[in-house]
Amino acid sequence: MGKIRIKQVRSKINRPKDQKKTLIALGLKKMNQVVEHNDTPQILGMVRKISHLVEVEKV
User: Fold this and answer.
1) Tens digit of pLDDT for each residue in 10-57?
2) In whole angstroms, what is the distance from residue 55 CA to residue 42 CA?
3) 41-44 long-range contacts, CB within 8 A, separation 24+
4) Residue 15: Cβ within 10 Å count
5) Residue 45's domain is classified under what CATH number?
6) Which of 26, 39, 48, 59 is the most buried (most CB within 10 A)?
């Protein structure tokens, strides 16, 4: 199990509430903020849900 680095690149303004909550659950509160998580199936599912708002890179 590796790590992934997630960076928010698009705004959460005018997005559905579930997408906003997913960003917060991942620890992303501001634009261009970067967080690292293990690449578990749960985290990858969250990232897939908001893939149009974030950039992902393997660490």
Assistant:
1) 999 999 999 999 999 999 999 999 999 999 999 999 999 999 999 999
2) 17
3) 43/4, 44/4
4) 15
5) 3.30.1390.20
6) 26
